[in-house]
Amino acid sequence: MLKNHPSDNTLLEFSAGNLPSAVALCVSTHLSHCPECKNKVSEYNVLGGSFLKNTIKSEPVNFSFDQLMQRIENDQKDAESLLPKELKISKEKVKTAFENTNRVNEKVITKLLKSNEPLTWRKVSKSLHEAVLKTGQSTHEVCFHKIKKGGKVVEHDHKGVEITVVLEGSFSDESGTYKTGDYIEMQPGNIHKPRATQNSDCLCLTVVEAPVKLTGVIGKMVNPFISFRPR
Amino acid sequence: MLTAVQNRKDSHEARPVENKDLVKSKHHRDDEWSVLLEKVANDRCQNSFSRLFDHFAPLIKGFCVSNISGINADNSDELVQEVLLKVWRKAESFDAKKSSASTWIFTVMRNTRIDYLRKHSKHTNNVVDGLEADDIWDETLDHQPFVYLQQSRDAQLARNHLSTLPVEQARCLRKVYLEGKSHSEISQELDLPLGTVKSRVRLGLKKLQAVSMR
Ligand SMILES: [Zn+2]
Question: Which of A114, A132, A158 is the last residue of a domain?
Fold first, then answer.
């Protein structure tokens, strides 16, 4: 069983639909590895359902049931396109995207790769590679990190809340070892020195929240996305 | 409603009451709305769908209008229609063994609302390009069969339970679900430290669980 989970507060916000999509993406990736949290979210959904049941009713005025059925008939074609599509991305492509690691287990990551192929990997340091994804938004940076087996990442601070989900392999820092599926939230000011385990590369999904804009001299010195970057 | 998770085997053994509930969870839910929704799923029954429409359309609208920023009385009908359209289209994936109709419709509404706001609002922060709400809030991940109390008692219990909570805990939970507010927004609004809001929410959840285990 996994040791590192999103907090109950985070799972509740996921259930309520209030989490920013990038953070929800991390939770979702964790859920595909964690029956325990899946069950919690299912429970919280029941709470959402009872809020819905007990809402004060308000009658729609601009459409009737017949109009809805009319639209359903007209939209039959759209409906077909809404059916779950086969993910066209092949195992080979996934392999290339992640440079020969053997995965992917999470549907959502596969889909994410599809809209970001080909990934552009950037060498951050000898043992760390990074691929930043296009997300179409500015509050969170979403990227993949790969630490070479046994590789060390230079000690670093976090300028905004940083969430990491281990997709493959494992890494450790001063506080413990993180395995595939683990969800790790680092607060600004948390300093750590991650290191991949000896026998395999470690692949992670990382989401960094853009920090609150600082003004003045100090603000100019702070790079918003310097996570995992060597000093 | 909120009960122990199924995979905690040890607690099942320790609590005979839960074993009884576990047996119940193997049966289909027999509340009226779940039965109707299954008919829509299996037979594409328009009559059943019409009854679900009459019941849920005003609830969905009520939920959206009073609670969600970016939605007002003018555009809410459009959203309600989108939700019901999706209920019809996705009905096949409803599984009465895993959730009740109202829980399932809540999640359909949640995902539709996320996509709707993304398309119609100027704030584009809630986007990860290439992904839709259904990809992230994937129902195969967040509808698990779990130990639950019998559906017919559900609504009543939920109402009672929420009313058993200390006012400030219930208020926080309400703001999360009904007003769609993040913990930090709640902390700003109520002028409370973030940690206080978080612990009120957690205490509320714990209390709801404790009550429904009785
Ligand atoms: Zn978990």
Answer: A114
Does a structural domain hold residue A231?
Answer: no
Q: What span, in angstroms and rounded, lies between the C-alpha atoms of B142 and A227?
A: 31
Interval B161-184 mean pLDDT: 87
Residue B27: which of B152, B164, B175 has the closest Cα? B152
Give the C-alpha separation, A184 to A30, whole Å. 10
pLDDT at B41 over 50: yes
Distance A21 CA to ligand 1 centre (A): 18
Residue with tokens 């000690």: A155
Q: What is the CATH number of the domain that holds A171?
A: 2.60.120.10
Question: Which of A114, A137, A168 is the last residue in one of the domains?
Answer: A114
Which residues does chain B have within 8 Å of residue A183's beta carbon, measured at their own beta carbons?
none
Q: Retrieve residue B62's tokens.
A: 């009520």
pLDDT class for B82, splitting at 50, 70, 90?
A: very high
B102 by DSSP, 3-state: which? Answer: helix
- A window 193-212, beta carbon within 8 A of B: none
CA distance A133 to A142: 6
Higher pLDDT, B15 or A159: A159
For chain A, list residues with pLDDT below 70: 77-105, 157-158, 211-231
CB contact, 8 Å: B89 with chain A? Answer: yes
How confident is the model over B191-209, as a mean pLDDT? 91
Q: Provide the residue ranges of all domains of chain B, joining segments of one domain with +.
A: 14-144, 163-214
Asked if B212 and B2 count as a contact pair (C-beta separation under 8 A), the reply is yes
